[in-house]
Amino acid sequence: MNPPMVNPLDPRPKVLLTHRVHAQVIQRLQANCEVDHNDSGRILTADEVRRRAREATAIMAFMTDRIDRGFLAECPRLRIVAGAFKGYDNIDVSACTQHGVWVTCVRELLTVPTAELAIGLLLSLTRNIVAGDRLMRNEHFAGWRPVLYGTGLTGKCLGIYGMGAVGRAIVERMAGFEMPTVYYDPRPFTTEFERALSVRRVNLNELFAESDYLVIAAPLTAQNLHAFDDAAFARMKTGIFMVNIGRGSVVDEQAVARALESGKLAGYAADVYEMEDLSRATRPSQVEPRPLVDAARTVLTPHLGSAVDSIREQIALEAADEILAALRGEVPPGAVNRLVTSPPRLPFQKSPGP
User: Residue 108: what pLDDT?
Assistant: First the structure.
């Protein structure tokens, strides 16, 4: 399906930015577009986004935005949804394709910040960093006393669930800790790949049986929704530590709470939560409360994986460039879908040369 035509009487396509962005991003778009930007510092409600998107030619979307068939039906002029995110499960890509709307994401910019956070969470969890900070602030400290013993990393088996870009970045950065590493991923990798990273591919049962520490670095798909449920925890080592920086709904948070209560899980750290996954109509409305109150064995952060200011600016600038490419009639470089296009030339697009 061809993309919607732009009204030739409107020389400046309208772009909606649903979240606050750096001034440079707005300036880049304003040269050729009318920009409706959310500078309130708060998350717009779904109704507010829909209302402001009705005349939009392009949307720069963020993780809290849900774009589905109903949304698209109200936005007949829309030509591109440029995601300022890595995973795009909050966007109905099939519906966008059918409506002639490009969908793009930024695949690489978030890889390193997310991997760094995963390692920070693992260290915080296993070396009692948060608990130690709390002890120093809330109790009188009269000198060294061994009250918060951790487990350390060296020599322990690290398991990675999902060997995409983030999983690989974690393994590369963990090399200095001298941890034997196994991974599970449905995609096969070459022997050369595994040798270069010093990793070994295993099945799920082996991953659960061998891992002392397990990091979830997988996107949310229909196949791995609640992959970590009661049955999965029952197959793991007792005393395993788990970190989730992939997607919240890859785990069943109620099963996590039960595993903590039983001692199956020695600790759990997360930067992502089920309530964030807008593609799930039945997602919970809040984070499971039991891990929230188990401060001794959990480290929970508010989606810090992407919270690096310079990276956020780069992400939004890249999304802006995706928008401008699509509005010039080009295939945006970060497209995750493919359209059959015969795009019109927009007012700011250069005419073809002779």
Answer: 85
Note if 303 is an active site residue. Answer: yes
Answer yes or no: 276 catalytic: yes
59, with CB counted inside 10 A (0-12, 13-18, 19+), is buried
Q: Which of 247, 253, 274, 318 is catalytic?
A: 247
Whether 33 and 175 map to the same domain: the answer is no
Confidence of residue 236 (pLDDT cuts 50, 70, 90): very high
DSSP letters spanning 315-331: HHHHHHHHHHHHHTTPP
Domain presence at residue 318: yes
Examine the pLDDT at 344 and tell me if it is beyond 70: no
Whether 94 and 156 share a structural domain: no
> Which residue among 55, 194, 276, 330 is the active-site one?
276
The string of pLDDT tens digits covering residues 98-133 is 999 999 999 888 899 999 999 999 999 999 999 888
Is residue 83 domain-shared with residue 182, that is, in the same domain?
Answer: no
Judge if 44 and 135 occupy the same domain: no
For 153-164, write each residue's pLDDT tens digit: 999 999 999 999
CATH of the domain at 47: 3.40.50.720
Residue in 195, 82, 212, 93 with CA at minimum distance from that of residue 159: 212
Active site residue 247: yes
pTM of this prediction? 0.85
Helix/strand/coil (H, E, C) string of 125-191? HHCCHHHHHHHHHHCCCCCCCCCCCCCCCCCCCEEEECCCHHHHHHHHHHHHHCCCEEEECCCCCCH
- Residues 107, 283, 303, 328: which is the catalytic one? 303
Q: 225: domain range?
A: 111-302
Q: What total number of domains does the chain contain?
A: 2
